[in-house]
């Protein structure tokens, strides 16, 4: 994961002028990585969508109860 992050964000989008610019780019990349990236091992759906579908099957079958965080 660290190498992928460095290759896609740090090296490709640099040079960086401020730490804040790196932080913002990191947040944008993490959001993309979890919410938009299509993952072949998950049936070409984003990880967040796959996890939501999995959680739905668990709660529907009574195997697990998912509590909201916060």
From TrEMBL:
Q: Where is the Integrase catalytic domain?
A: 1-47
Please cite one Gene Ontology biological process associated with this protein. Answer: DNA integration
- What InterPro entries does its record include? Integrase_cat-core, RNaseH-like_sf
In terms of superkingdom, the source organism counts as: Bacteria
Question: Which Pfam families does the record match to this protein?
Answer: rve_3
This one is known as Integrase, catalytic domain
């Amino acid at each position: 994961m660290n190498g992928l992050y460095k290759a896609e964000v740090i090296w490709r989008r640099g040079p960086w002028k401020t730490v804040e610019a790196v932080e913002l780019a990191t947040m944008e990349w993490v959001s993309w990585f979890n919410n938009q990236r299509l993952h072949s091992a998950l049936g070409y759906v984003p990880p967040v969508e796959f996890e939501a579908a999995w959680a739905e099957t668990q709660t529907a079958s009574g195997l697990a109860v998912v509590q909201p965080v916060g």
